[in-house]
Here is the input.
Amino acid sequence: MYGTIRKYAGCGDLKEVNRVALAELLPVLRTIPGFRSYVIVDTGNGTGASIGMFDNKAAAENANQQARAVVQRTALKILLPNPPEITVGEVLGEAK
Here is the structure.
C-alpha cells in the first residue's frame, strides 16, 4: 500500500477547502483503480494537509496528477494559492 501526503501553506478557509475537495476531488479519486481513502487535516495557522491511501505507487502518483488538475479547474485554485509539498511512500504498517 502507498500513501500520499500533500502539505499546503497559506490556505484559505480549510472548511471550504474540505467542502470543495469532497465535492470535486473525491469523486475523481474514487475512479482511480487502487484508491483506498482520502482525508484532509487542519494542521493550524493557515496550513493543511491531505492524506490519500492507495494500493500501489502508480495509483498514488495518478492521484497526485488528478488532484493537480482538479485544483486548477475549481475554487481550490484560490483556496490553495501555493503549490503543495508532496510526499509519496510505501506504507509500512496499518492499524485499524
User: Anything to note?
Assistant: The chain has one domain: 2-88. Strands lie at 2-8, 35-44, 47-54, 85-90.
